[in-house]
Design brief:
7% strand, mainly alpha, NET domain-containing protein, NET_sf, 68% helix
């Protein structure tokens, strides 16, 4: 794994920390769909990001980008709605 890929995966891990429960559940569904080995205990679900094949990692990364985009759009809508309420 080259430094660029390592950096992408590191950024992915940071983005995972910002997800809510519904998004975590979708990540888990994607892992199950791709037959990725993971472990689960009282502290959560754990998997080795470095061991993911490129296709699986790309799918997870696309999902994270989808979540970020949706959050930004929702935030913009809330600002717009609040501006109308103030008028």
């Amino acid at each position: 794994m080259d430094i660029t890929e390592y950096s992408r995966r590191e950024q992915f891990l940071e983005a995972l920390k910002t997800l809510g429960e519904p998004e975590y559940l979708e990540i888990l569904r994607l892992l199950q769909k791709k037959n990725v080995h993971y472990s689960e205990n009282a502290n959560g679900v754990f998997f080795d990001v470095a061991a993911l094949d490129q296709e699986t990692f790309d799918s997870l990364e696309q999902f994270i980008e989808f979540v970020k985009k949706n959050r930004a759009e929702l935030s913009e809508r809330e600002v717009l709605i609040n501006s109308f309420k103030q008028k």
